[in-house]
Amino acid sequence: MTTGALSGIKVLDLTRILAGPSCTQMLGDLGADVVKIERPGKGDDTRAWGPPYVKDKQGDNTTESGYYLSANRNKRSVAVDITTDEGADLVRQLAAKADIVIENFKVGGLKKYGLDYDTLSAFNRRLIYCSITGFGQTGPNASRAGYDAMVQGYAGIMSLTGPPEGEPYKVGVAIVDVMCGMHAITGILAALHHRHSSGRGQYIDIALVDSQVSWLVNQGANYLLNGQVPARYGNAHPNIVPYQVFAVADGHIIASVGNDQQFARFADILGLGELAADARFTTNPARVEHREILIPILVESISHRQKAELLAAMEAAGVPGGPVHTLDEVFSSEQVKARDMVVQMPYDLSGDGEVRLIGNPIKMSETPVSYRHAPPQCGEHNDAVMADWLADD
Questions:
Q1: Does one domain contain both 30 and 152?
Q2: Rounded distance between C-alpha atoms, residue 183 and residue 192, angstroms
Q3: pLDDT digits (tens, 9 = 90+) for 148-184
Q4: Can you say whether the dihedral through the CA atoms of 306, 237, 242, 361 is positive or negative?
Q5: How far is CA 142 from the centre of its chain?
Q6: Can you give the residue range of the structural domain that contains 361?
Q7: Which one of the listed residues 13, 99, 148, 177 is annotated catalytic?
Q8: Residues 313 and 360 placed together within one structural domain of the fold
Q9: Is 220 contained in some domain?
Q10: Which DSSP string corresponds to 292-352?
Q11: Second label for 329, Cα 20 to 30 Å away, from 154, 195, 237, 391?
């Protein structure tokens, strides 16, 4: 028996790739019953986005990639061809039982199958229907497809990422998709709350571009305030100095000096206490103005220090900072282990009978997240879902 915060909520998942699946995985972790609709024989595109793939008992690749595994646990898969009358009718029957439908087809793409909000809500007034698209349901670009890297470029984050000279960089994971999924969750949970009092569902329009524009945050606000297009600062910060990556003798560290007192203590650690009394560096606005003078001084001093020794001194002095971990260091760290950020789940396709996945970051005292279903095989739960959802029909 599921006892999560969303226990009893039925989610019909018509999404693929990452923005939608990451959203529905979170809803599943929170206890919802998520049914993933997939194309027979192929399933979610990301199943083939490898290597790496899950290895079977013979050490051979299966058809399930790490990419697919990252966003599809706590779901049951139903393989159905929605382009046929029979398939579309089956999905409509499931939608009649659903609390939430989530889809990421092109604008208007589901209307021809009778799976759009207007059609489904006509016989399920409590339905919450969320559409995730690249540019949203309105505007001159509404018909265009949207992909994470393209949106990172279109909506500005790429222009802020990378070294000052050379080409702009995209973020190393599909952050636009992930954050769009998070915004979709927020809208869905708000709509659920509204439904408790009104009895009515509603339509939610979420766009990758809108989502990414919203988290331009301080850089976006800076531009709106002064009209100046922000420059790229690499690993430095546009508004705080010093707040960046520094090379040490045996690697790299991050110094996140957030106020003038921390800077004075940081300068003392480096044997550069006189900097805190220099009018060019005493306050953060002064340090931002004179960063081209200050940073080379700090770089020279820090480059001779050992990582562990410098970080220990910073921690003892209350100067924020930390290492730049590689993923092997991340997942082997005692902090990540203590927070249960790696979970092991039974998995029939794997040669050792289980798979390791990234854990859910939400820790709830009364309704904790749960890990009930490993990422499903395409069509694995056709019969079970029909029995559960359509038993009374």
A1: yes
A2: 14
A3: 999 999 999 999 999 999 999 999 999 999 999 999 9
A4: negative
A5: 23
A6: 10-215+334-389
A7: 177
A8: no
A9: no
A10: HHHHHHHHHHHTTS-HHHHHHHHHHHT--EEE---HHHHHHSHHHHHTT-EEEEE-TTSTT
A11: 237
